[in-house]
């Protein structure tokens, strides 16, 4: 660009103003040298030599376009007085005469006026200009020039006068103030940049550690290749496979329960018929997420673990293990979907199979896991409020605030839900409706109040969740039964290696005979105290002691069915976490007075579990 073209561009107000706004982000990356600054001043001085007819704007032309570049009418508001004095025409060229001398005098007067009123004209916020409104079309541009660059000031009366005509002197002063401010920003932004000496030191370091850097690049290349291979051969982009295998070795000691019903005994002899056994359980969990916050759980399971309560073995539900049954075939064990609502405060559960009460409610026991927790079925959690007809249904967990959570759910028996015949289905078959409130007053204490109402159809009665005495489990035989269940749970982490907890559960059962018969009621009670020792010997370990009373009929409409004696459940276990993937879990539990009668001898159940997780 020729010097004449550059001069014409610099002193054309509309063109230069628009260019300044359009290029303001670029100025921060341009280094301004003293030679460039001197050249700019020379151009500004020579511009006064253009003919008046070229420089002066036509008075009859509208000023809206010039208003697009609102500038400071006085330059004293930005920069130091020394910087302002450097651009006075009288200091740059003293050889002007005639009209040029008049122009020089006007510009000097303008700068002196700005310096004299600097304190009261400078603004730091566009809101200080009384005649500028947020609805003005140039408001954002003016706000940026005032608050970001600090190169715009108002008139002494606190106005900006954005619609008045822009004189050539005002334009020159505004441009000068903005350019000086840009120079300050450039100097500030480049003060901490690296020097040539820094680059030389970096070069020497790179040469000295060239071998190590080459080795590092090689490792990165290998990792990139492995990552590409994993991506190409991954199971799924949305599904993770998790697995668990448990080996069970166990036996029982003591004679089997001889008396299980009124008027017993109900077995011919009470000798210990059980032998040592080896059982197993294998699970494959396919956890799928479509959004990163939801979960579709699909589980395949195969197991073959003896149910010790069979008549030919211990003959009491009190000896049941935390997991039992199966015939070794793989079956679909879990199938449910969970997704967040209300900005993550709520979690909705929709289950087709094995969506259980302990999934939609929160057991506070540290031993609730079937794999690495309690060895017994009773020792996991309160069996009357956290077990029942379940498998298919809908639930909501809602975090009310940081301390309170509410869990709601309706679950139907997974055996009845897909059956549309009379007495089956979602609502006519066995089902449970539950509500739970979890309260955590501190980070170390958790409390929960559970309530559920359950209906058991004829032939599908299990009031005590398959634990306790046979009478507590079916207080009215196979007749349809309803029960209202109330449970209280607590767990207190006293220290990093000791927790104290437990539960109390009450079930009020009501007989619902299909034909004529008496209306019978029963009250069933159970409780437990738990002592947990996490990370006792090493991180990941868990020791535990559980002492309690398995479900017992404490009231019955038929007096002779009330259980007067109390059997005590005592359990001890320890999980040795050998590695992240393998744990060894020996455990033993003792049942005194099985079936809550002293006619039966004490039974001891031992297990040794090896848990593999992958």
Give a verbal description of the structure.
There is one protein chain. This protein has about 625 residues and is of the alpha+beta class. The chain is built from 15 helices and 16 strands. A hairpin with a 4-residue loop joins strand 14 and strand 15. The longest helix is centred in the middle third of the chain and has 24 residues, at about 210-235. It is elongated and about 120 Å long. It starts with a helix and ends with a strand. Mean pLDDT is about 80; it is low at about 1-105 and about 105-120.
The dominant shape is elongated
Number of helices: 15
Radius of gyration (Å): 43 Å
What structural class should be given to the helix and strand makeup?
alpha+beta
Distance between the termini: 71 Å
How can the largest sheet be summarized? 16 strands, antiparallel, barrel
Low-confidence stretches: 1-104, 106-120
Give the spatial strand order of the biggest sheet. Answer: 1-2-3-4-5-6-7-8-9-10-11-12-13-14-15-16
> How much β-strand is present in the residues?
25-35%
- Quantity of strands, as a count: 16
């Amino acid at each position: 660009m020729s010097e004449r073209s550059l001069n014409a561009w610099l002193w054309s107000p509309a063109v230069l103003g628009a260019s300044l706004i359009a290029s303001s982000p670029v100025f921060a990356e341009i280094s301004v040298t003293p030679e460039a600054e001197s050249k700019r001043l020379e151009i500004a001085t020579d511009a006064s030599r253009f003919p008046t007819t070229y420089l002066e704007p036509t008075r009859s032309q509208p000023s809206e376009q010039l208003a697009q570049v609102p500038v400071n009418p006085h330059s004293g508001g930005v920069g130091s007085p020394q910087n302002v004095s450097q651009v006075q025409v009288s200091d740059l060229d003293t050889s002007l005469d005639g009209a040029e001398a008049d122009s020089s005098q006007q510009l000097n007067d303008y700068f002196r006026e700005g310096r004299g009123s600097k304190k009261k004209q400078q603004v730091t916020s566009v809101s200080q200009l009384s005649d500028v409104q947020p609805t003005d079309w140039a408001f954002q541009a003016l706000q940026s020039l005032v608050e970001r660059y600090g190169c715009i000031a108002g008139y002494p009366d606190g106005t900006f006068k954005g619609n008045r005509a822009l004189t050539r002197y005002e334009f020159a002063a505004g441009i000068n103030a903005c350019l000086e401010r840009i120079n300050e920003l450039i100097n500030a932004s480049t003060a901490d940049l690296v020097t040539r000496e820094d680059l030389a030191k970096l070069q020497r370091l790179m040469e000295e550690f060239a071998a190590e850097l080459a080795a590092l690049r090689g490792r990165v290349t290998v990792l990139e290749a492995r990552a590409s291979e994993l991506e190409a051969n991954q199971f799924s982009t949305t599904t993770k496979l998790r697995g668990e295998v448990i080996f069970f070795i166990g036996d029982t000691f003591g004679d089997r329960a001889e008396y299980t019903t009124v008027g017993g005994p109900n077995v011919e002899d009470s000798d210990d018929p059980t032998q040592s056994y080896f059982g197993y359980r294998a699970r494959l969990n396919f956890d799928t997420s479509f959004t990163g916050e939801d979960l579709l759980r699909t589980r395949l399971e195969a197991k073959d673990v003896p149910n010790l309560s069979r008549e030919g073995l211990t003959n009491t539900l009190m000896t049941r293990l935390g997991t039992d049954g199966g015939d070794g075939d793989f079956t679909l064990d879990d199938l449910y979907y969970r997704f967040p609502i209300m900005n993550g405060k709520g979690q909705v559960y929709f289950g087709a199979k094995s969506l259980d009460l302990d999934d939609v409610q929160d057991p506070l026991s540290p031993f609730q896991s079937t794999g690495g927790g309690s060895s017994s079925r009773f020792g996991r959690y309160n069996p009357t409020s956290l077990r029942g007809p379940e498998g298919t249904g809908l639930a909501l967990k809602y975090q009310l605030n940081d301390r309170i959570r509410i869990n709601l759910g309706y679950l139907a028996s997974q055996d009845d839900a897909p059956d549309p015949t009379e007495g089956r289905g979602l609502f006519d078959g066995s089902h449970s409706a539950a509500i739970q409130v979890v309260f955590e007053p501190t980070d170390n204490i958790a409390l929960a109040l559970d309530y559920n109402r359950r209906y058991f159809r004829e032939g599908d009665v299990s009031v005590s969740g398959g634990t306790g005495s046979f009478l507590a489990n079916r207080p009215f035989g196979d007749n349809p039964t309803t029960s209202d269940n109330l449970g209280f749970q607590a767990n207190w982490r006293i220290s990093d290696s000791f927790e104290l907890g437990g539960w109390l559960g009450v079930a009020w059962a009501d007989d619902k005979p299909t034909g004529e018969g008496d209306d019978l009621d029963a009250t069933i009670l159970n409780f437990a105290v738990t002592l947990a020792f996490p990370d006792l010997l090493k991180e990941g370990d868990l020791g535990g002691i559980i002492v309690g009373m398995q479900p017992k009929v404490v009231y019955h409409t038929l007096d002779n069915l009330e259980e007067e004696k109390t059997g005590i459940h005592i359990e001890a276990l320890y999980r040795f976490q050998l590695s992240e993937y393998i744990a060894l879990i020996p455990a033993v539990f003792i049942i005194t007075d099985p079936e809550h009668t002293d006619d039966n001898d004490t039974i001891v159940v031992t297990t040794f579990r090896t848990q593999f997780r992958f």
